[in-house]
Write a structure and sequence with these properties.
Elements lengths: L3 E6 L9 E2 L2 E2 L17 E3 L5 E3 L6 H6 L21 H9 L8 H14 L2 H15 L9 H9 L1 H34 L14 H26 L1 H29 L7 E5 L2 E2 L11 E4 L2 E4 L1 H6 L11 H5 L2 E5 L8 H5 L40 H8 L8 H4 L7 H30 L2 H4 L12 H5 L4 H33 L18 H17 L2 H29 L13 H40 L8 H17 L13 E4 L12 H10 L5 E8 L2 H21 L5 E7 L2 H11 L9 E3 L13 H15 L3 E6 L15 E6 L6 H9 L9 E8 L5 H15 L4 E7 L6 H35 L3 E3 L18 E3 L4 H13 L15 H21 L4 E5 L10 H11 L6 E5 L11
Parallel strand pairs: 1-18, 11-12, 11-14, 12-13, 14-15, 16-17, 16-21, 17-18, 21-22
Antiparallel strand pairs: 2-3, 4-5, 6-7, 6-10, 8-9, 15-22, 19-20
Helix pairs in contact: 2-27, 4-14, 4-19, 4-20, 5-6, 5-19, 6-7, 6-17, 6-18, 6-19, 6-20, 7-17, 7-18, 8-17, 12-20, 17-18, 19-20, 19-21, 24-25, 28-30, 30-31
Length: 1043
């Protein structure tokens, strides 16, 4: 809800200023002073200083002209053609007809311009890894080293730590697999926990796996601790056993074509029966010439003699025995070729067998074999995937390889090719030899818990059992060997501080402490005990590692960095992206929640490393990618100016340093951080006076000082120091050259020149005014926080109060946008916004407030609105006296400077009568030149010439200060002072308690002779206000009503 108040402001009699520093006040309006020409009221005193014939505008003459109501805006009159009065613009703004709104026209201009003009995944990962591994020396760390040096310490640490956890859990899974084989097939009697009831078998098995798994883990850790050479010796033994097991399977398949093994399964109709509950696959049997019922009959019937007590399905269907392994020549491949997924609790059925559909009793369901889980393609892939996660085993031990660049590509690719051939051929051969119900029987209930592959193999099932046992033991041993080395490599890089202790080890470099942590984590996996619960965790960690290996190769290839020269040539970025995409897809289709958990863990590790500040420069690809992205973005920004909707202040903050290179006004940075809130571009600049060759070290120190102050004030941006022989030229260079391409500043923030009145040196305000002119010429916005030391720090909070906007002339909407941006910061969040605008005599203030309300509504800005009427436009005596004092002060300072100049010139004439050296004025800096002399004039001095030169110089200086009394103020200065005084009265009256006042900043006069008066006008305009922000727009619209 907008609040409207129309406040008429009348002239207040300034009785307090009847006597002003000994100069009596005279009412010149009664003295008959009048202008010779209403359009020419200024004359010259002969020295370039303007005097007016009449100190006041004649009211009747003013009424004849069109500038009567502009007298209250005389400070802004020189720019009214480009910065129109708000009163003349509001109606167009409210009715969408303002051509400077920018959004609609911008879009039209753009449109006009445009009318003119599985196995595959692991193999792909291996190819990417081979390219990275052959692009330089790969010390210990393997995949972690490759990822971290390619993508940076954050990605390397996050993925490396996840891969370490995956490898460690893989070791636990392999140990659990070995224990399952040991207790199920080799030594069943060794089980410590034995089930009392059938439903307790699973829990008893898990308890046994936990006990024996812990023992096996300790033994394997002991072998690894003794030394890697013993691991290699065991690995050779395990490899021989595995090769013999694989060969025995192929031999058994060939043998099954002629002599299939006796491997019967019992079927009731087309349903598979659990063979653990009975011995004879028949309803009845003959004993001593008598027909007796079997245990199978007892499972389905309550009486041994009456069939009416039996299960209906049992009565209607026959019991048959079929060959579980009919052999490769049986044609089973036709039935097993197509997928047939099952749901949990569904009975395993062979659909080719005859069956009579009948309802059976639910109490007899335990006699059948059920699917223990609901199967889908993705779920089965997730279970199978850990069997192919060993492709990184060689790279994990890269530090132990003689030539890692040669061994990793050859070994990894050959290993994947070999295992892929074995896996694929095994799948096909098993489907050709074994019945589908047997393949789906996870726990072997239909075959009395016999090992199906062992039965198929030749010459004995023990070859498979022993081979499988040693294979899982070897895989676990390799995981326990590689994981500690991976952790040690991460710890030695010191990117995760709390892991630093794990970088230490034995004298020979063996990772003792890392092995201890690995054993503890693996023990946690063993205590979980369930392989199906461990497998998805492993899959996610390994897939993340493979994903980033592919990403690293793709990034390096696309960036074409000069250091990217892998010896392995058979790679392409498209293959890496394909492998990366497959990894992402597999992560989510196998288990989306496990994928999210894994990504969350990796993200937390990434942010931790980033927060701790991993100050590592490894020439990683992410930095190169950032440079390429920055270049691309900068080139895009060059295509055209930013849209009005995207405009935000990109700041160049001009700081002043003292002699000790300390920032004089650090609150400028505080204000910048509150205005920006971390968004957009911020450049902090400063100028050091001197020679670059001599002051380079000083510039570096100043840059470091400013960066430290930026960190304290939480300003995110860049620092730019310029060394220049002239301060004003250095500032101009900064304003012109800061930024790059389209990423340039559009606003300048500079401090107010405090103490300029007390200083005889005009540098205090000359540099300030020149900077205002430079920003205007560069079409840049200018923000001048006055009394910046009273601005709040980032730790303060305003719980109430107002941000007042005095909108006098329209210069692009900066005054509307800045309070909105400030209120996004926690310091100013609770402040409310008030907008004041000025109505002149001929303005309709009622219509103005309606138009302003409409305009704010369309801008989506909530603010209270007040329209202030400034009716009394007669220039008061106070205004005249204030102007008179201003010009008297200026004249006094000029005489003092001229006196200094005369003394300096006389000293120079006495010192050197043979030449005139180029002499700048003493009061100015090296860039101030009131009198211009040739650089060097060669002439002969005589006594007459010397006296003549002295007389000429003295003639330009008044003999006394009594002439100051007779000075009449310049009429234009009186009008400007009138504007400053009247506006200040209104602003102080309405905004004396405001937390911040934003005000249009008048432009400096086109005639540079009035620069000092301009500073006085600004001082008068802002008197009595605690915090003021003077704002000048950059000549473009920065806010729009369009979406």
């Amino acid at each position: 809800m907008h609040h409207f108040t129309v406040v008429p402001v009348k002239d207040q009699q300034k009785s307090d200023y009847e006597s002003f520093e000994g100069v009596n006040w005279v009412d010149y309006r009664e003295a008959g002073y009048s202008s010779r020409d209403p359009n020419d009221t200024v004359s010259s005193d002969g020295h370039g200083y303007h005097k007016e014939d009449s100190p006041f505008l004649n009211k009747t003459d003013s009424l004849k002209g069109s500038e009567y109501y502009d007298r209250n805006l005389a400070l802004f009159e020189e720019e009214l053609d480009i910065r129109p009065k708000v009163s003349s613009l509001l109606s167009r703004l409210a009715n969408y007809t303002n051509i400077t709104q920018g959004a609609k026209e911008h879009e039209e201009a753009e449109s006009a311009e445009s009318s003119k003009k599985r196995t595959p995944k692991t193999m792909l990962t291996a190819i990417s890894m081979s390219a990275i591994a052959t692009n330089g020396v790969v010390p210990a760390g393997g995949s972690y080293f490759m990822i971290s040096r390619s993508l940076g310490p954050e990605f390397g640490g996050a993925v490396g730590l996840c891969f370490y956890l995956g490898t460690t859990f893989a070791g636990a899974m392999y140990i659990l697999g070995a224990i399952e084989i040991l207790l199920a097939y080799i030594v069943p009697a060794a089980a410590i926990f034995k089930p009392v009831q059938p439903h307790e078998e699973t829990s008893a098995m898990l308890h046994n796996m936990r006990i024996y798994g812990t023992i096996f883990l300790l033994l394997m850790c002991l072998v690894v601790f003794i030394g890697v050479k013993y691991v290699n010796k065991f690995a050779s033994l395990f490899l021989v056993c595995v090769i013999l097991s694989i060969l025995s399977i192929y031999v058994g398949v060939i043998k099954s074509a002629v002599y299939p093994p006796e491997f019967k399964i019992c079927m009731l109709g087309n349903r598979t029966l659990s063979r653990n509950l009975f011995d004879i696959c028949a309803k009845t049997t003959t004993e001593n010439n008598l027909t007796v019922t079997t245990k199978l009959w007892d499972l389905f019937c309550t009486s041994k003699n009456q069939t009416d007590t039996c299960d209906e399905y049992f009565v209607q269907n026959n019991v048959t025995e079929i060959q579980g392994i009919p052999g490769v020549a049986s044609g089973r491949i036709k039935e097993n070729l197509w997928s047939s997924y099952m749901t949990k609790g569904e009975i395993l059925q062979k659909h080719s067998l005859p069956s009579v559909e009948a309802s059976g009793s639910r109490k007899n369901l335990h006699a059948y074999v059920f699917a223990d889980i609901t199967t889908t393609f993705t779920m089965l892939v997730g279970i199978f995937f850990p069997s192919v996660t060993g492709i990184m085993a060689g790279s994990n031990r890269s530090g132990d390889l003689k030539d890692a660049q040669k061994s990793i590509p050859i070994g990894t690719i050959l290993a994947i090719a070999t295992t892929s051939l074995i896996y694929l051929s095994s799948v096909v051969l098993f489907g050709a030899c074994i019945e589908d119900v047997v393949l789906r029987d996870k726990y072997g209930d239909a075959v009395n818990n016999n090992l199906v592959v062992g039965t198929l193999a030749w010459p004995s099932p023990w070859v498979i059992v022993i081979g499988s046992f040693f294979s899982t033991c070897g895989a676990g041993l390799q995981s326990l060997t590689g994981a500690p080395r991976l952790l040690q490599a991460i710890a030695k890089d010191n990117i995760i501080p709390f892991l630093r202790v794990f970088g230490n080890g034995k004298v020979n470099g063996e990772p003792t402490w890392a092995l201890l942590l690995t054993a503890i984590i693996a023990e946690l996996g063993i205590l979980i005990a369930s392989l199906d619960m461990v497998a998805p965790i492993l899959s996610m960690f390994f897939l993340m590692c493979y994903l980033f290996v592919n990403l690293a190769c793709a990034v390096q290839t696309l960036l074409r960095t000069p250091n990217w020269r892998p010896r392995f040539k058979y790679y392409h970025w498209a293959l890496s992206f394909l492998g990366m995409s497959m990894c992402i897809a597999l992560m989510f289709i196998s288990s989306w929640y496990y994928a999210l958990v894994a990504m969350l863990i990796a993200g937390m590790i990434y942010k931790y490393i980033e927060y701790q500040g991993a100050e590592k420069e490894w020439g990683d690809g992410i930095r190169g990618l950032s440079l390429s992205a920055a270049r691309y973005a900068l080139l895009r920004l060059e295509e055209g100016p930013p849209h009005t909707k995207n405009w935000r202040p990109q700041l160049l903050v001009m700081l002043k340093l003292d002699e000790d290179l300390h920032v004089k006004h650090p609150r400028l940075l505080t204000f910048a951080s509150q205005l920006k809130a971390g968004k957009g571009l911020t450049i902090v600049g400063s100028v050091i006076q001197g020679n670059f060759l001599e002051n380079y070290g000083e510039a570096q120190a100043a840059e470091q000082t400013i960066k430290n102050m930026m960190a304290i004030e939480k300003v995110k941006g860049f620092c730019q120091i310029v060394v220049s022989s002239k301060v004003r030229e250095g500032i101009a260079h900064l304003i012109q050259s800061c930024g790059l391409g389209g990423m340039k500043h559009n606003s300048v923030v500079m401090g107010w020149p405090y103490g300029w009145r007390q200083s005889e040196d005009p540098r205090a305000w000359k540099t300030f005014i020149d900077t205002v002119r430079v920003t205007t010429a560069g079409h840049l916005a200018l923000l001048v926080p006055k009394n910046v030391s009273f601005y709040p720090s980032n730790h303060e909070r305003f719980t109430e109060g107002h941000i007042d906007v005095w909108w006098i002339v329209h210069d692009g909407g900066m005054l509307m946008l800045l309070p909105f941006l400030l209120r996004q910061h926690k310091v100013w969040k609770k402040c409310r916004m008030r907008i004041f605008t000025v109505a002149q005599m001929d303005d309709n203030s009622i219509q103005m407030k309606k138009d302003l309300a409409t305009f704010l509504y369309h801008l989506r800005i909530e603010a209270e609105v007040e329209v202030v009427e400034m009716h009394g436009s007669d220039i008061s005596a106070y205004t005249y006296e204030r102007t008179l004092m201003m010009e008297q002060r200026s004249q006094m300072l000029r005489q003092m400077r001229l006196s200094k100049t005369e003394r300096a010139r006389e000293a120079q004439l006495i010192k050197d009568r043979n030449s005139i050296i180029h002499q700048g004025t003493v009061y100015s800096d090296e860039e101030e030149e009131i009198h211009v002399y040739p650089d060097r004039i060669q002439m002969t001095w005589t006594k007459e010439k010397c006296e003549s030169e002295r007389s000429r110089t003295r003639a330009a200086t008044p003999n006394s200060f009594r002439e100051l009394i007779s000075i009449k103020p310049d009429q234009s200065n009186v009008r400007r002072m009138h504007t400053a005084v009247k506006l200040n009265e209104v602003i102080v009256n309405k905004s004396h308690d405001a937390k911040l006042v934003l005000l249009n900043m008048p432009g400096p006069p086109k005639n540079q002779d009035g620069d000092e008066n301009y500073m006085e006008f600004l001082e008068v305009l802002t008197e009595g206000l605690e915090r003021v922000l003077l704002v000048r727009g950059g000549g473009c619209e920065v806010i729009t009503i369009y979406s």
